[in-house]
Design brief:
With 243 residues, the protein is of the alpha/beta class. It folds into two domains: 41 residues, no CATH class; 199 residues, Rossmann fold (3-Layer(aba) Sandwich), CATH 3.40.50. The protein is 37% helix and 14% strand. It has nine helices and six strands, in the order H-H-H-E-H-H-E-H-H-E-H-E-E-H-E. Strands 1-6-5-2 form a four-stranded parallel β-sheet, with helices on both faces. Strands 3-4 form a two-stranded antiparallel ribbon. Helix 9 links the parallel strand 5 and strand 6. GO terms for molecular function: glycosyltransferase activity. Keywords: Glycosyltransferase, Transferase. InterPro entries: ComF/GntX_DNA_util-trans (IPR051910), DZR_2 (IPR044005), PRTase-like (IPR029057), PRTase_dom (IPR000836). It comes from Nitrosospira lacus. This is Phosphoribosyltransferase.
């Protein structure tokens, strides 16, 4: 009986301390000893247990899906923290569309839990924004996520390695089959990446067309291995293979 009272006392004391320190869960607003309380962290939408190691879409009985075997993309692997579903979409939107830059290190921490199990690349290349889009938004969300990610995993950031030279319409507003055509030839690179393993960092991967186009550019400049690191992966059955 004494142990029960002790546990209740300690839990109440911890809640009081957290309240005084102003630490609250970003999702539910309850007192927390981190950015997310344990119930909310447990509720985050995980990837399916069996998913393709290349494109991260659901797969059964294999490590690589049939589509990636039949038409291999320019990247070797995708590491995604979670599915792009509630409440991950709310966390991403908070950074991307509400300029809540304090969310960037939170998303970096979530992605780091998956990266710990992956080969560490030589460099991290944040997905570039066109200068017009960068001026409109005021920041590159991939670069902001990458700042903490780079420090924690030890891979240097190369934010200037590639540039987006065409200000194309947003991929999100286009039909699935138009996305690969829309993104073709939009990147350029002036950096020698001979023999390097590069991780492309982005917030969300939908069809993979943008990731694939940048991976092609990196390989043309010497990269021997390209990984995709994304905070969230859309689980639509339509992918770059169908574009």
């Amino acid at each position: 009986m004494l142990s029960i009272f002790l546990i209740l006392f300690l839990n109440n004391s911890l809640n009081i301390i957290q309240t005084l320190l102003g630490q609250y869960c970003l999702l539910c607003g309850t007192a927390s000893n981190g950015d997310l309380c344990l119930p909310c962290r447990d509720s985050l939408p995980h990837l399916p247990l069996h998913h393709c190691r290349v494109c991260a879409l659901p797969v059964t009985g294999s490590h690589v899906c049939g589509a990636c075997l039949a038409k291999p993309p320019a990247f070797d692997r995708t590491v995604a923290a979670f599915r792009y579903a509630f409440p991950m979409d709310a966390l991403v939107h908070s950074l991307k569309y509400q300029a809540n830059l304090s969310m960037a290190p939170v998303l970096a921490d979530l992605l780091l839990t998956r990266i710990d199990k992956s080969p560490i690349p030589d460099f991290i290349v944040p997905m570039p924004l066109h200068p017009v889009r960068l001026r409109e938004r005021g920041f590159n969300q991939a670069l902001e996520i990458g700042r903490k990610l780079s420090k924690q995993c030890g891979s240097p950031l190369l934010p200037g390695a590639c540039q987006r030279i065409k200000n194309t319409p947003s991929q999100a507003g286009l039909p699935w089959k138009e996305r690969e055509k829309n993104i073709r030839g939009v990147f350029t690179c002036e950096t020698d990446l001979t023999g390097k393993h590069i991780a492309i960092l982005d917030d969300v991967m939908t069809t993979g067309a943008t990731l694939n186009e940048l991976a092609k550019t990196l390989r043309k400049h010497g990269a021997v291995r390209v990984s995709g690191w994304v905070v969230a992966r859309t689980m639509s059955p339509v992918s770059l293979h169908d574009s």
